[in-house]
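Entry:
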Amino acid sequence: MKLTIKDLVLFYNLYDQIKDRAPSIKTAYKMNKIYERAAQEQTFIQEQQQKIAEKYAQRDEKGNLILTDDKTDILVEPSKINECKKALHELVEIEVELPDYSFTLDELEPLKLSINDLHSLMNFICEK
């Protein structure tokens, strides 16, 4: 099954919220396999994000990256905002190959997912 980095990131972020719920053993197994693959991709994603930050960030007089006031992000050079957005978009749209760990709606039913949770799983759902 082909997915994008974005699909894996959405799943990775959702996993912590739902990991303590009680799915069937089969569903838990598939979720753990997807999570393992998503965790492997995290290193690649972080490396690529760092390269993008280095390329497009504003810098102070010493050459250090300038952070936002809350210190959670970098400030991008105004003239490079569109290029930076394009690079980030290209990163999250990279396709990765996974074994078919899809879920049916019946398998996910016991998890009592919110609409937002379900959105993160859409590309993993196989309607049967």
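DSSP finds five helices and two strands in the chain.
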